[in-house]
Amino acid sequence: MSIGACVGIKDALAASRLANGNGDNYQLNQYIGKSFYDGENFRAIIECLDDGYNIAQDLIELMQDFRDNEREQARTLTLLSEKWLTRLKQQSSLASYHTTKRAQFDVVRVTKELVRVREATCAEIDKVIDKYRAHIDETYISERLRPGRKHRRSNEFKKLFKTSYASLREVSDELEKLRTQEKKAQDAVRTAERACEILELDSTTTDKHLARAHEDQSKKYTVLIDIKRKIRETKKQHKNAQKVYRHKAMEIFKQCQYEEEERLNQIRETLLDFIQAMHTPKQTNDLNEIFSNLSNKVTTQQNSFDDLLFWAKTYGIESELSKSLPLTPVENDDEEDDDEDLIVESRLAKKSSSHESHKHEKHPSTIRIENEIDDEEPSITVSAKARLRKARPANNSTEKKHHTTTTDLSSTTLAVLNHV
């Protein structure tokens, strides 16, 4: 330790020892590498308790930054939704239409639900911050002579340490004074010894002068011995006082550690509450439900076949499939998606029309007409049958055009027979 102090590496070694075995980096301070029981190093634990207020303020600021980030993301989602709703409305109606366009609107509108979830997260974080701030306000009190706050028991602990250290400090001061006197006495003895040596080497020195020099040397040596005896006695007192102080200091330190443990536990509890607020089971369930509903909505309501028929019907492409397609009006983009039943009915009607158009290429009524003609007029010529076949397309076209109207088969049969 002495060599380290001489070359200035003691503090660096102590800091390295603190950080050894983990990735933490500790800032150097005046108490690193020193004994807690030496001098007034007990102030280290007092400053530890007082500095807890600054650590608490940093933690509050950290949580506020996370909350502000969540709010900024919510605002970003809102702006994104507004941008893309406008963008989708401006898309070409030739290439963006019907169920596929609605699906894109649904994806954009889901941002409202995401914003709701983030706002709920911000509200939960605010609750954690308010709870922790209330605890900090109770734990730390304002100082009179300087800005900032200190621990509510800081002055109490400081007085206890000073009172316990007073007896040891008195003995330590006495011991330090004796050591200073010892050094001076040693210098005086060495000076007296050199004076005696000079007189002994001088041939003109009388016995009286030499005896006086030796007497002075003896007195100085006696003073040095007396000081060393006092030092030995004071050291014993210092050792006893140090034992008493260590015991008292340890008791006070345990009380300080109780307060420090409470502070650390409060930080731990606050961090867990903060993590819970950032990622709650309810939030996870809400997000899963939002995206599950969105996925199901796109899966069930987007139909490329319906879109193709819609496009053909809208732009006058007549075909067997598009003739019976009922047009479903495209909702206003700002309206709610409450047309699911209409879409389902449209889809069923389209499939039914497709099936019927293939099934009734040759209508049963026409078949019955031919059967009646064959029964009543077996000798009808080929030319008459050809005329009958010419009448079928008109009848079939009429039936396709009025799919929901029932045809009077008896009157049709009479008309055809009269024509024959």
UniProtKB/TrEMBL annotation:
Keywords of this entry: Coiled coil
Coiled coil regions in record: 168-244
Family annotation (Gene3D superfamilies): Arfaptin homology (AH) domain/BAR domain
Spans annotated as Disordered: 348-420
SUPFAM superfamilies given in the database record: BAR/IMD domain-like (SSF103657)
InterPro entries: AH/BAR_dom_sf
UniProt name for this protein: F-BAR domain-containing protein
Native source organism of the sequence: Adineta ricciae (Rotifer)
Lineage of source species: Eukaryota, Metazoa, Spiralia, Gnathifera, Rotifera
